[in-house]
Design brief:
The chain has about 475 residues and is α/β, with parallel strands linked by helices. It has helices spanning about 45-65, 70-85, 85-100, 100-125, 160-170, 185-200, 215-220, 235-245, 270-280, 295-310, 330-345, 380, 400-405, 420-430, 465-470, and strands at about 25-30, 40-45, 130, 140-145, 150, 175-180, 205, 225-230, 250-255, 260, 290-295, 350-355, 370, 390-395, 410, 415, 435-440, 455, 460, 470-480. The strands form five sheets. Strands 12-13-14-11-10-16-17 form a seven-stranded mixed sheet, with helices on both faces. The chain has a six-stranded mixed sheet with strand order 7-6-5-8-9-19, sandwiched between helices. Strands 3-4-20 form a three-stranded antiparallel sheet. Helix 2 (about 70-85) crosses helix 6 (about 185-200) and helix 3 (about 85-100) runs antiparallel to helix 6 (about 185-200). The radius of gyration is 23 Å and the shape is globular. The termini are far apart.
């Protein structure tokens, strides 16, 4: 993979290198985004070693698929316990490798534990056989595991993204190989250690530390049954193409440019607080962060003022300080890409209301930024800006606001700010082209609700009973009497 390609949001890991590229062990080195100082360095796996690991995982699957839901649930509950007991350690690791606020890292570990508990408690119900009335014959639908799922995961939520696929996948009877983003190798190994410590079979969940160029070889190997990716649109196309060429199932969660509609009947101060929180989740480095704020003309100026004040409160600071609301970006390059998008948007006519300047200090810092007067042809309008930059777009009325929101190539999350809940529900449920729509709240994932997008935001669903069934063989069984 070419990990320098824009957009900077996640591991861009699937461009092919010549087939005669040497099969060597890579060295994965980390950099502290807050200081720019070198961090830990890890020896990775060669392509052949990664394939051998996948084959070992396939061997573990053959026994695991025969275990009962009760056996799986007991181990998954232990994984939740490990996550809670080691959450401070894991939060420190996330902060060191990708700059996440320490308090957010602890919350992420807790969310992963909740996810493990949820699927431990609900997988058997989600995957229960479903009887079908065929007038005399016994008939039912059953859900069987597919095998080994290869997960190609991003750095921005290094634990949550992995556990979001792993907990339902293992509870469904599958096994897993994790190829994580190259800047969070410590997190990748720590995730494997959670399952080991919880008592899962040794080879049931394995991490491979490989460059992106080796991902296709894994997808093509018979040991892998399916693949799931969270990443850029281009990475998704390449993974989907590789999986499709060998007729293997894939689930893709790709980019987003979530639109929030601020209607004329919204309570403006409250709306601005919701929009700021939506934009600034994880320092703006989230696929489901609010990015485009479409305000109806009569309230646009008031919303501008309120959003600037709400965003101003997100001051940069030490990610280990509990009072900090905005830490560094994941890398200097990612920061520079964000700044280039802001500068080009301003050059093309956007008004800079807040931020927009690179601070003179070491590390990957970028301030909370607000642009208004954003129009088509500007990066802030057309592209996913993966950082703390809010783009305000004016619409004449509700119909135009919906048209602008749906005009994006993306369709992951969306929001509606209004005091008329019936109106908001109608727009969210019926009009917005997105996998998730929230009224008067910021978009977020939850194990109890399906998660995923449409259009260039990908396909398939994670979480809930929809997610756990994605990597199962949905089999029809008929027994003639």
């Amino acid at each position: 993979m070419d990990e320098t390609t824009r957009p900077p949001e996640r591991d861009q890991s699937h461009s092919r290198e010549p087939s005669n590229a040497p099969d060597t062990r890579p060295r994965l080195s980390t950099t502290n985004p807050a200081t720019g100082q070198p961090g830990q360095s890890y020896e990775g796996h060669s392509r052949d070693e990664a394939i051998a690991i996948a084959q070992a995982v396939r061997g573990a699957f053959e026994e695991w698929r025969r275990t009962s839901f009760a056996e799986r649930a007991a181990l998954m509950k232990r994984a939740a316990e490990v996550l809670r007991r080691r959450k401070d350690e894991f939060a420190e690791l996330m902060t060191a490798e990708m700059g996440k606020l320490l308090k957010d890292g602890r919350a992420e570990a807790e969310k992963c534990a909740f996810n493990c508990d949820h699927f431990a408690e609900n997988a058997e119900r989600y995957l229960a056989r479903e009887p079908v009335d065929l007038a005399g014959s016994k008939a039912f639908v059953t859900y069987n595991p597919l095998g080994v799922v290869l997960a190609v995961m991003p750095w921005n939520f290094p634990f949550w993204q992995a556990f979001r696929f792993a907990a339902p996948g293992l509870m469904a009877g599958n096994a897993a190989v994790l190829k994580h983003a190259s800047n969070v190798p410590g997190c990748a190994l720590a995730i494997e250690s959670v399952f080991r410590e919880a008592g899962f079979p040794e080879d049931l969940f394995r991490t491979v530390l490989i460059p992106g160029r080796d991902v296709q070889a894994l997808i093509e190997n018979p040991a892998i049954a399916a693949v799931t990716l969270t990443g850029s649109v281009e990475a998704g196309r390449q993974v989907a193409g590789a999986a499709g060429a060998v007729l293997k199932k894939s689930v893709l969660e790709l980019g987003g440019s979530d639109a929030y509609l601020v209607l004329e009947d919204a309570e403006i101060e409250k709306a601005a607080r919701v929009c700021a929180a939506a934009r600034m989740v994880n320092g703006g480095q989230s696929c489901i962060a609010g990015k485009r704020f479409i305000a109806i003309a009569p309230v646009r100026e008031a919303f501008e003022r309120a959003l600037v004040e709400a965003m101003r409160s997100y001051t940069m600071g030490d990610p280990r300080d509990e009072a900090t609301k905005l830490g560094p970006m994941q890398s200097v390059k990612a920061r520079d890409d964000i700044h280039a998008q802001v500068q080009e948007s301003v050059h093309k006519g956007a008004r800079l209301l807040l931020g927009g300047e690179v601070p003179d200090q070491p590390g990957a810092w970028y301030p909370a930024t607000v642009l208004s007067g954003v129009q088509p042809g500007m990066p802030a309008y057309d592209e996913e800006v993966f950082g703390p930059v809010a783009a305000i777009i004016e619409a004449a009325d509700e119909a135009e606001a919906i048209r602008i929101a749906n005009g994006s190539q993306f369709g992951l999350g969306s929001g509606v700010l209004t005091e008329d809940l019936v109106r908001g529900e109608r727009i969210a449920a019926e009009d917005l082209e997105a996998g998730l729509s929230f009224v008067n709240g910021n978009v977020r994932s939850d194990p109890r609700m399906p998660f995923g997008g449409v259009k260039d935001s990908g396909y398939g669903r994670e979480c809930s009973h929809f997610g756990i069934r994605e990597f199962t063989n949905i089999k029809s069984v008929v027994v003639e009497r």
